[in-house]
Amino acid sequence: MLAKPNWTPPNSALPAVWTTLYVMMALGIWLMWERAADGPAKFRAVVLFGVQLVLNAAWPPIFFALHQIRLALVVISALALAIAATIAAAWHVHRLAALLLVPYLLWVIYAPVLNAGIVVLNP
Fold first, then answer.
1. What sign does the dihedral 103-105-111-116 (CA atoms) show?
2. Angle (nearest 5°) at CA 83 between 82 and 86
3. For 35-83, how does the pLDDT look when each residue is reduced to its tens digit (9 = 90+)?
4. What is the pLDDT of residue 34?
5. CA distance 44 to 73
6. Which of 23, 43, 68, 111 stands 20 to 30 A from 95 (CA)?
7. How far is CA 46 from CA 11, 21, 60, 95, 105, in A?
8. How confident is the model at residue 118 (pLDDT cuts 50, 70, 90)?
9. E strand or H helix that includes residue 50
10. How far apart are CA 47 and CA 8, in angstroms?
11. Whole-structure pTM over 0.85, yes or no?
């Protein structure tokens, strides 16, 4: 059992939060894929979306299965940067798609802070 900061959200909140975020992400990538004009800007936004999705998928097993909380902190920090880059790229392709990713970025900015708190409490 890891010690967690007292500002850790309850486990019961996580399914609702992540379900909402994944629906918004899916709508965002669909808008970029289906509604945006083809070209280098769209390609860049879609590739960045894929990069952040890989980092998103990598974090849970690193943190929960491998118990590598420091490596998980690096991955979640990279994820936040990748989401920010995706939003910036998507802004030039489909603004609503970019805006749909903002709550995801805000949640993932909170996640490395929480992860860092766990690292500090579990030396």
1. negative
2. 85
3. 999 999 999 999 999 999 999 999 999 999 999 999 999 999 999 999 9
4. 95
5. 26
6. 111
7. 31, 17, 23, 14, 16
8. very high
9. helix 40-60
10. 32
11. yes
d(CA 118, CA 64): 12
CA dihedral 106, 111, 54, 96 (to 10 degrees): -10
86-110 pLDDT tens trace: 999 999 999 999 999 999 999 999 9
Distance CA 46, CA 112 (A): 24
Which residues 6+ apart lie within 8 Å of 74 measured at CB? none
* Kind plus residue range of the DSSP H or E element containing 69: helix 69-91
Coil, strand or helix: which one is 117?
A: helix
